[in-house]
Amino acid sequence: RSSYSCCYFVLPCCFFDFHGKYSRRQSKKTQYREYLDFVAQVGFVCGFHVEEDCLRIPSTKRVSFVGKSRTYPAAERALIDKQITQFINSHRTCAVATCDRRVGFNLKDHSGGLCKEAGSEPPEDETETAGTVWMPGFQPREKVEQVRNCASLPRDFVDEVVLNVANLLLNAAPQKSCSDKQGGNMNTWNQGESLSLREVAEHLDKEILKKLKSEYGGLQTLLKNNHQVFEVLNGRVHIRDWRKEKPPSKTKPEVKRRLSAGAFKTRLCWFFIHHPDGCSLPSEACPYAHGTEELR
């Protein structure tokens, strides 16, 4: 609808129509094939000769459609525009369709202005945006999507939260004495207790929680991002014990072994710096640096 001379290419993926999830209408075809037929139908209704192509890409969704030419002369644009409007309304929910009928669609005022040839300018009284004419209530996404996975939070803020939560878990358990034994070996490293995310949140400052509330996943996402220190399982937070982690596979190809060795110890060990008992692993076994001199 942007221009009579426009062309299009589309690679259908997720099953959505104009206003939400696409609802299947028959069971004789696969869901993917039925959705492809729907997308092709949209092209036909819009007056295109629709061509189907299969892309050479490593994906299960690789069928594409191309519209390079129209099936009608330029003089019939107003008629096709009316056809498109009816098609859109027939594929929307009852509530939205009711709203659309109430707002109405004035073909005489808008169809000519919105389907101009490329390079021509619509009259001043026909510059209303397409969103308000074609689909009342349609709200497009912002041009720039905000990153809200806690990755853009200030490093100082993240470090403060990590330290607060770790101290909370460590102080929740009684300190183990040097006489504690497990399996005959001395085990004095304090792993702390596990607490639910709710219990952890109750002990954090309100300003911290307020800042995390604007992030997707909030506290849980921040703790999972810091997987060197924490393990979040079934809504409970634990301090990670690296002694229980599986050692790297010795069956890796030589090239991959060399690459992993080259990336070894690129970050400082949080436990070596902050944990009262230090790191649970000796320096040669820990994947993180015990001091700046070990950094690569």
Question: Could you list some keywords that capture this structure?
Answer:
about 10% strand; 11 helices; 2 domains; zinc-finger; about 300 residues; alpha+beta; elongated; tRNA (uracil-O(2)-)-methyltransferase
What this model shows, in words?
By secondary structure, the protein is of the alpha+beta class. It folds into two domains: 8-96, no CATH class; 155-171 and 191-294, no CATH class. 36% of the residues lie in helices and 11% in strands. The protein contains eleven helices and eight strands. The protein has helices spanning 31-45, 77-90, 94-103, 107-114, 130-134, 155-171, 197-203, 206-213, 218-225, 254-262, 270-274, and strands at 8-10, 48-54, 63-70, 181-182, 185-186, 195-196, 230-233, 236-239. The strands form three sheets. Strands 1-3-2 form a three-stranded antiparallel β-sheet, covered by helices on one side. Strands 6-8-7 form a three-stranded antiparallel β-sheet. Strand 4 (181-182) and strand 5 form a beta hairpin. Helix 2 packs across helix 4. The longest helix is centred in the middle third of the chain and has 17 residues, at 155-171. It is elongated, with a radius of gyration of 30 Å. Residues 94-131 and 177-186 have low confidence and may be disordered. One of its GO terms (cellular component) is cytoplasm. Its EC number is 2.1.1.211. It catalyses: uridine(44) in tRNA(Ser) + S-adenosyl-L-methionine = 2'-O-methyluridine(44) in tRNA(Ser) + S-adenosyl-L-homocysteine + H(+). Keywords: Cytoplasm, Metal-binding, Methyltransferase, S-adenosyl-L-methionine, Transferase, tRNA processing, Zinc, Zinc-finger. InterPro entries: tRNA_uracil_MeTrfase, Znf_CCCH.
